[in-house]
Amino acid sequence: MLQEGSISLYVHDELLGHVPNPGFQARHGKSLQTIDNDGLRWNGEASPLSERTILAVGDSYTYGEEVNDDQTWPAYLQRLTGRRVLNGGVTGYGFDQTVLRAEQLADRLSPSTIIVSFIEDNLRRAEMGTLWWRDKPWFAIEGGQLAYKPAGEPSWAKLPRRFHSYLGHWFHKLPPPQRARAQLVENKFVEALPSRLQHLLGYCVRVHPVGAGLEIAKLLIRRLAELQRTRGIKVVVMAQHPPVIWLNQSEARRLRRATQCVLDCAAASGLATIDTYSRLAVEPAPHRHYAHTHMNARGNSMIASLVAATLPALLGETP
After folding, report:
1. Is residue 114 within 8 Å of 236, Cβ to Cβ?
2. What pTM value is reported for the model?
């Protein structure tokens, strides 16, 4: 659950909704999490910024929930390649926030390569104006183009803090909203009761019907392609996968279809792609590479090894 306050892991950001708090360090669960002065997850000591710097952006799978600073896949990638790797991942981000952060950090840090990591749920998050009590920016599609909508004021602030914490704990145990059927009928969203309750109380406020996130992601891919073209920064789109993909065949098919659509769109737009599914699929027990809902240290090391082995060919470099 995201925290609030002057000593919290996250602080408000006008463009992105929330970003890591520069200089923050604490144990979050069982993991030590350190944010450097640039608002990035600390990887450990590294060489200074250079023309070969890699920027990683994404959600909690990139940030490295449930592992220590030196056990995230960007940290392992830094040690494997000897290149400076900047971890710009942020827990809870949708695909929309990830692309906005890539653009923001590209302007600030001028990396040579950006790895944009995502899981399928990031598409659902792009359909929301509020997630887990926290307001976020979102995009409308107007005339076939993306129109940025800034984060609004979350409705949970009106609730007593104890009631808010209890509801958040209860809502977190419910099935993800994307599993509930949703339709747009006379400009009103019709969903299953739990999703409607989340919407009414401001836990997850939907601004798009289910499925719209994929169309938004396709338009966001165009922005990444434009970033690559105008800035000369190589952009790599990488798909990661939650543990349920190894435990539920019907859910796996749905996740794989949506993920492949994003990767196909990225490839068609001239972006390099990596799908981590095949590497994990050859393991006898892929789900053991996860802690609870995120990759454990062993899983992150495997992801980093795949990226390190694949990156030279994607970048046209000699290994």
Report:
1. yes
2. 0.87
